[in-house]
Amino acid sequence: xxxxxxxxxxxxxxxxxxxxxxxxxxxxxxxxxxxxxxxxxxxxxxxxxxxxxxxxxxxxxxxxxxxxxxxxxxxxxxxxxxxxxxxxxxxxxxxxxxxxxxxxxxxxxxxxxxxxxxxxxxxxxxxxxxxxxxxxxxxxxxxxxxxxxxxxxxxxxxxxxxxxxxxxxxxxxxxxxxxxxxxxxxxxxxxxxxxxxxxxxxxxxxxxxxxxxxxxxxxxxxxxxxxxxxxxxxxxxxxxxxxxxxxxxxxxxxxxxxxxxxxxxxxxxxxxxxxxxxxxxxxxxxxxxxxxxxxxxxxxxxxxxxxxxxxxxxxxxxxxxxx
Amino acid sequence: xxxxxxxxxxxxxxxxxxxxxxxxxxxxxxxxxxxxxxxxxxxxxxxxxxxxxxxxxxxxxxxxxxxxxxxxxxxxxxxxxxxxxxxxxxxxxxxxxxxxxxxxxxxxxxxxxxxxxxxxxxxxxxxxxxxxxxxxxxxxxxxxxxxxxxxxxxxxxxxxxxxxxxxxxxxxxxxxxxxxxxxxxxxxxxxxxxxxxxxxxxxxxxxxxxxxxxxxxxxxxxxxxxxxxxxxxxxxxxxxxxxxxxxxxxxxxxxxxxxxxxxxxxxxxxxxxxxxxxxxxxxxxxxxxxxxxxxxxxxxxxxxxxxxxxxxxxxxxxxxxxxxxxxxxxxxxxxxxxxxxxxxxxxxxxxxxxxxxxxxxxxxxxxxxxxxxxxxxxxxxxxxxxxxxxxxxxxxxxxxxxxxxxxxxxxxxxxxxxxxxxxxxxxxxxxxxxxxxxxxxxxxxxxxxxxxxxxxxxxxxxxxxxxxxxxxxxxxxxxxxxxxxxxxxxxxxxxxxxxxxxxxxxxxxxxxxxxxxxxxxxxxxxxxxxxxxxxxxxxxxxxxxx
Lengths: 323, 546
Hints:
The structure holds 2 protein chains of 2 kinds. Chain A is an alpha/beta fold. In chain A, a hairpin with a 4-residue loop joins strand 4 (57-60) and strand 5. Chain A has helices spanning 17-26, 73-81, 100-104, 127-131, 137-145, 160-173, 189-193, 235-243, 303-309, and strands at residues 4-10, 33-37, 50-54, 57-60, 65-68, 89-93, 113-123, 149-153, 179-181, 223-229, 249-256, 264-271, 274-282, 290-296, 318-322. Chain A starts with a strand and ends with a strand. In chain A, the strands form 2 sheets. Chain A has a 9-stranded mixed beta sheet, sandwiched between helices. A 6-stranded antiparallel beta sheet of chain A has the order 13-12-11-14-10-15. By secondary structure, chain B is α/β, with parallel strands linked by helices. Helix content of chain B is 32%, strand content 21%. In chain B, the strands form 4 sheets. In chain B, strands 1, 2, 3, 4, 5, 21, 22 and 23 form an 8-stranded mixed beta sheet that branches. An 8-stranded parallel beta sheet of chain B has the order 6-14-15-16-17-18-19-20. A 5-stranded mixed beta sheet of chain B has the order 9-10-11-13-12, with helices on both faces. In chain B, helix 10 links the parallel strand 15 and strand 16. The mean pLDDT of chain B is 96. The interface between A and B is large, with 32 and 40 residues.
């Protein structure tokens, strides 16, 4: 059965969730997103791109839909799942006080969804103050703790030293945190949601609509590195290499033939610090080949460094990197 | 010329301080023409003497300030609660005293179902009275191993399901999801909590559940079940007000036979504020005698027994972490200010005392920015407020509606687990409201607990828990005060005290008609006073005998 990836975007009021969602809708790259938002009015949609506007749902020319959550996320999500056939990805904007990790768990009990990532935005200028607030401190802490990837937004409003301070503080309170600084929520959309053509091996790629090339290239550049091997992959070595990646690597996706389960198609999925490895049935007639793609910010290590990091995983056939 | 009817009664308890008791009430054009002796009323001209209530006691029609029309919705499904509960047709659905009884009842219902794929949904279940035994999937598999079976707990936050539901959702030992309860061996028990429960209830029963819960029929059932308990005005105190629901309200309330005045409150979070204000103003254009829009609701925190109330230090007695915000402090401020500025009255759900504090702060700030007399913003539930918070309510011109039924249904849990003895003994502090002069009502929050103002009044008077413990004698109030809280007090919290809530000249002829005199029975028997029926705008609604 086809499962739609579910991404949950969390973060306190003013952290930049709506900015990120607006960017996503403009740069959907041909993937048909359903975006569930709290405040319909805040979504900035070019009216020329709206093909239908019915009550709490707006349909866009690029195949995306935007739905108001109203007062029930559960019902809004169910309404969206009725349209599962014309969608590729579901994105939920958690309310400013919700725990986005809890919302993402719905994908674990919904056969039509697969948990993708929990992206939490934090306002770099105020997150420390918020975290200490008597009323919302614990709410902020739950959000930070549940983040697969933390987007430290509004970095442009701080000096380098201030930004480094906040980042250090965040890392100390949550060891293992994957953090990417950003301004105006400018993080490579493709790396957050996995749009790039090279993200998934071709056989998994979603159908492309004619609008695929509409995305304007004004977003931040993306870095990509891929790895292909026909040899068996050492599971522990792969996990170790993934865990050792720096924060600038935002996402990894792979179809892998593990040495310890060579008949099973292994699927590796990483968003931020969260790594999921699952078995996806037998290889069948598919090419017995392991592919892994990393996506990240331009700060991502160069090809040579990544080649070195993954050297012990399997004998590589080809590696490539692009910026 | 309009006709006048004069009703003699055994006693009329008016809630009017000038004339607390009387023997006769005259009704003309659906309103109270006069109250007094027959001789005093005869001066109004020709009349018909109607002796229907001669041996009965009249009170102002009860006003339920915090209920939900979902009470009517859930009666579409079987009730499997611990306590007897009256259904809209007047029959008593008997309480089920153990899990086996619940299973047996559901099995009987299942056998009568024809469509094999249709899920079986039941509600009102509460295992806290079963001495620790929880329901599990194996219990419900005895009902059916093929049909989805879902049992919603009385708090509406927890759900028990059978194996087919778990299997369909792919829930097994490897599913690590908050709210999916597992046994010591790591196997899901079939109990689901909070968002997982809500999701599964809707998922397994179909998307139209929300519609079914608030359609026209549901509104009718709600009105009937309210009327059976003597209620003439009831709120639906949180609704997104989609067109379909509004249409259902309108059709139901257009009938002369519709037995209550219905006051829906708009859930402010559902729309951006400018749209919400526009929507409400448009809805209010069509307000009529039996349907009034205009109330606004903000939900701040969760529930105490659901461990989701926002509590001040020192938090939960059992040491569990603080609850969660449904609407965060910044949004509470924003929403309250907007609806305050637009002239609306806002009802603010606060269970924990931290939530009450945030709401009080928000009202104080809104008033500093936009001074406004007689706004009567009302804290709803407000179960943990201390005397200082009540004094702030009084100073800010606020009202409060206290959840007295909690004392009985969850008082024991509050005493032993959530609040601890000290705070449990002062929860739902009616006597403090009286002492501090905060206009107050008491409520049932149906369908969370059954609608029944006499029972609610009994709770406030006696403060007895289900196990028989008295929770805080110092917060007990007199029967007369409790009866005022379910009539004039509640009307005051809804800004309708000029129109309903007492029996006096000019007001609407809305009466609760009782077999016994609630001020003459022992206070412990207040809940056992029988309701003969109601009068709504002069129209008589006799209730079927229980």
